[in-house]
């Protein structure tokens, strides 16, 4: 087994920041310690496919900037909601506020995931990201329920919307805020190789288009259609529900240890190219936060010595670490090649695995 083998050289040298490791002494006041905790320094490079927010100060900064911009946008819209009574704008405001606040549990999870494994949490704290994802799903569900309930109440008891020009302006503010956040998240996400941050930017862009839908509400109200505001509010609720469906599916799959089958195929193909590997047995992949771990049994020469079998296992782990994106550890078990008529080396375990 080769999980104890240390993999010392980087997988993607071009992603590494080349700078000296001897840093001058820095102040250690509570303020500086807090800043270093919120924007941790790291020598690790970002991976290409999944978010590197935990080890990237730029990724964490993107979360905080997004929180600030969307928070200011939501506050400006909330003031207009109080002034105008528009439920369409209320639904958009609630959605923007929920989007802003979801940055908090995500940032906490990424920072918590930096903690090393210990004797209680032997796999580390990466699963905190799954819990944060569940919080995000619940926040989206709550915003959908609130926006829908408010729109239905206004549909049953329609009221005029006041200050229509201000409502239209607030809708444009919502669009501008979301579009700026979208561009920023996408730019940072692509530069650090974070697919999730890019996707979150695209999500913010769809929220911006939702803000533009409020303009339809204001336009309908200006034309005297009293049901324009609640109907647009219901349409926004439907858009939030669609986002909720996609987010819940992704989070629940991750919590159920689902992985892309193409990663399994890639791992199997990689193992078959390793010298000394004569077959691939059981192969399992699972996410621990945004990192992958693998467990696999490979078939080796039955006459190989322990050292030779261990070398094959180490080579197999090494190949997997290079080939499978976001894989950080692999536990490789070497099985002897079966001999015709020979005893099954796993026979003593049969009564534990049957059924």
TrEMBL record:
Give the span(s) annotated as Disordered: 1-31, 335-355
Q: GO molecular function terms here? A: cadmium ion transmembrane transporter activity; ferrous iron transmembrane transporter activity; zinc efflux antiporter activity
Q: Where is the composition biased (Basic residues)?
A: 1-12, 20-31
Tell me where in this chain the Cation efflux protein cytoplasmic domain is found.
Answer: 268-337
Pfam families assigned to the protein according to its UniProt record, in alphabetical order: Cation_efflux (PF01545), ZT_dimer (PF16916)
Q: Which InterPro entries match?
A: Cation_efflux, Cation_efflux_CTD, Cation_efflux_CTD_sf, Cation_efflux_TM, Cation_efflux_TMD_sf, CDF_Transporter
For this UniProt entry, what is the primary localization, expressed as one broad class?
membrane
Membrane-protein topology: Multi-pass membrane protein
Q: Where are the transmembrane segments?
A: 62-88, 94-112, 132-152, 231-248
- Provide the family line: Belongs to the cation diffusion facilitator (CDF) transporter (TC 2.A.4) family.
Q: What is this protein called?
A: Cation efflux system protein
| Native organism | Streptomyces pilosus
